[in-house]
Amino acid sequence: MAHTVGASCGSEDWSTIGGWLKSSSSIPAFSYQHPQKTQFLCRFYRTKRPFNYVKKLVDPTRSRVTGLSMNKKFVSYLRVSTARQGESGLGLEAQRAAVVNYVKSLSGGAKIVREFLEIETGKRADRPVLAEAIHFCKESGAVLLVAKLCRLSRNLHFITTLQNSKIEFCAADNPHATPFLIHILASVAEFERNQISSRTKEALAAAKRRGVKLGNPKYETAIPKAVEARQKIAANRNAGLRKMVAEVMEKTGLTKLAEIAQALNLRGIRTARGSEFTPTQIHRLLKAA
Fold first, then answer.
1. What does the pLDDT look like over 106-136, one tens digit per residue?
2. pTM of the predicted structure, to 2 decimals
3. Three-class HEC string of the chain
4. Same domain flag for 130 and 107
5. Same structural domain, 51 and 95
6. Are residues 82 and 101 in the same domain?
């Protein structure tokens, strides 16, 4: 006949059953409870408050010390798409305020060691100022800081390549984004770029059908100014490249054009079109000095 355990067992039997339960391999033994953890759980049930509220009572929040703040050195990169935006300064001031406020919120003596400013569209991957900022980060070990991820690039391939290059970069509006989240945000930025381009083309086509004359009405005077501006940009960039070549030759003692070109390529420096340097290009660069 079946009997209930409580009805048929005395105190001695209970001790025997308890010993059998502890020694049995099929039934897990009772786990040890840490006194501090038990006290914390009891306090949680007594207060009947949410878990995060009780956790703050037991373990107060610490000051914001992150891996980025321990690095201390940041390089800010600010970008606008058009010259008009660059002249107005409104977009640049908002980006500068965002990166400065983010660095100030970090502890551990974090600071911005250098600022790079560029006026270029986000669809292009061959941006000389950005290449210079990345090169500076590689040499100094600083973190590349932007106000938003779209300011860095709207090209998914470029963002992926930058991630694979092991250059640490951070967006002030989402500093704790994981590589997976950055990949998704870059995809959204590229999609948005394509949508903007499609809407612009459709609007221009509609205006053309209405008889609107497209283009710059001051075309004849605008072309010489554009050529002069491009020549000035190219001259400034070539002057910086010649300075780098002189530095390479002085530090390494290299004299052959092929070796100098290889040294620039190893540093990650590219031509204006994003290609690797060749001995012929180094020859033309030094000859134009």
1. 877 788 999 888 887 766 767 788 888 888 8
2. 0.47
3. CCCCHHHHCCHHHHHHHHHHHHHCCCCCCCCCCCHHHHHHHHHHHHHCCCHHHHHHHHCCCCCCCCHHHHHCEEEEEEEECCHHHHHHCHHHHHHHHHHHHHHHHCCCCCEEEEEEEEECCCCCCCCHHHHHHHHHHHHHCCEEEECCHHHHCCCHHHHHHHHHCCCCEEECCCCCCCHHHHHHHHHHHHHHHHHHHHHHHHHHHHHHHCCCCCCCCCHHHHHHHHHHHHHHHHHHHHHHHHHHHHHHHHHHCCCCHHHHHHHHHHCCCCCCCCCCCCHHHHHHHHHCC
4. yes
5. no
6. yes
